[in-house]
Design a protein that fits this description.
379 residues; alpha/beta; eight-stranded mixed beta sheet; globular; transmembrane
């Protein structure tokens, strides 16, 4: 039976109190970490907070958070990567209230037998479809995390929403992290899922001509590399959706110079230039800048982009990756590829995870869903 209005109101108030309590705990934890780090570096907490004020002022008010006070730019990158490596061992799964069925599937690439594991999200309505129902589109989502952290289950709420609202199949691969196995291990793991979905489309009820590959951050770079490899090997996909993608291994060539050349708040939060440089070295090797670049490792540098599918890119203007994402969009457009480039003002890297209830976060998700709908569902 439906809940009475008073019960719903009481439940909402309880939920809001819990959120406020959790927010205070996070703020206290952030303050403790910040105080410890600044003290270790000989910087007073008050002086540190004052020094961050000009940067925080450029962040959209709805996206300001306790997390932005964490001194990621001061913590040695090697230590940050170590901490992230420990976090990578946690299989974080977030609950979704969407009417989808989530399964763990395992298989092998039809090309070379490369094994894979992925989360499959299917709207319950698709499981109840009658015979001879036209096949539906599918999306493969490659998660972010700098190639060192992250799990597909963390994206269940977003992927479940995409699956249910569009009535499509969603696959979210697991993949090896760079501290376990550097490039191209993660690309191989995710590409195996794409090929398996393409080859088994008929039995899955999927239209092989309407498969999208999307991802965020390092997963956005993976998605772009997968799309390029699929084109080269004769298995093109229909669409790529890139959320603040990590595309350029040279963006971290000189982190100090890069930071000085940026608007004051770009790259100051969550994912910094120093951390980015360390992550690329971890992923491609410490001497990667002096070696010939492997195909698909740094998708911005592909010479011929003319065969890429329609592309959507969304990124905040304070994101470290904004210049490379914009450059990629310009190169795609110049090559004749339909491109939509969305900029979210006052938004930093990973803002949708830091402020999931913010209007800009909802706009980001809505924009991606709209782009998917236009390419996969509208003739």
């Amino acid at each position: 039976m439906p809940q009475p209005a008073k019960q719903k109101k009481r439940k909402k108030q309880t939920t809001n109190k819990h959120r406020r309590r959790l927010g205070r705990r996070k703020l206290y934890a952030a303050a403790a970490v910040t105080a410890a780090v600044t003290a270790a570096l000989g910087v007073g907490l008050r002086a540190y907070l004052k020094s961050r004020s000009p940067y925080l002022a450029q962040v959209a008010p709805q996206l300001r958070s306790w997390a932005l006070y964490l001194p990621n730019h001061l913590i040695p990158p090697a230590l940050m990567l170590y901490i992230m490596g420990l976090a990578a061992k946690v299989d974080l799964i977030r609950a979704s209230d969407r009417d989808v069925v989530i399964r763990i599937i395992e298989g092998k690439s039809p090309d070379d037998g490369h094994p894979f594991s992925a989360r499959q999200l299917v709207p319950r309505a698709l499981l109840q479809r009658v015979p001879d129902t036209p096949p539906r589109p599918a999306m493969i989502w490659t998660h972010g995390g700098g190639h060192v952290v992250g799990t597909p289950g963390f994206y269940d709420p977003q992927n479940a929403r995409i699956a249910e609202e569009l009535g499509i199949f969603v696959f979210a691969p697991s993949y090896r992290k760079s501290q376990q196995a550097p490039f191209p291990a993660d690309l191989d793991d995710c590409y195996a899922v794409v090929r398996w979905v393409q080859e088994n489309a008929g039995s899955l009820g999927i239209d092989p001509q309407r498969i999208a590959v999307c991802g965020d951050s390092a997963g956005g770079g993976l998605a772009a590399g997968i799309v390029q490899r699929a084109e080269d090997e004769g298995h093109p996909v229909a669409f790529q959706g890139l959320v603040y993608p990590m595309l350029d291994h040279r963006s971290a060539t000189d982190p100090t110079t890069a930071a000085q050349a940026m608007p004051s708040s770009r790259g100051q939060f969550i994912w910094t230039a120093r951390l980015n440089a360390a992550a690329w070295q971890h992923y491609l090797g410490p001497s990667h800048l002096s070696r010939e670049l492997a195909p698909y490792a740094s998708p911005l540098y592909r010479q011929d982009l003319s065969q890429c599918p329609p592309t959507w890119i969304g990124i905040g203007d304070l994101d470290l990756f904004y210049p490379e994402a914009h450059a990629f969009a310009q190169r795609l457009s110049k090559a004749g590829v339909p491109v939509t480039f969305e900029t979210y003002e006052g938004a930093y890297h990973g803002f949708d995870h830091i402020a999931p209830q913010a209007a800009k976060t909802k706009t980001l998700h809505a924009d991606l869903i709209k782009a998917l709908r236009e390419v996969l569902l509208e003739d």
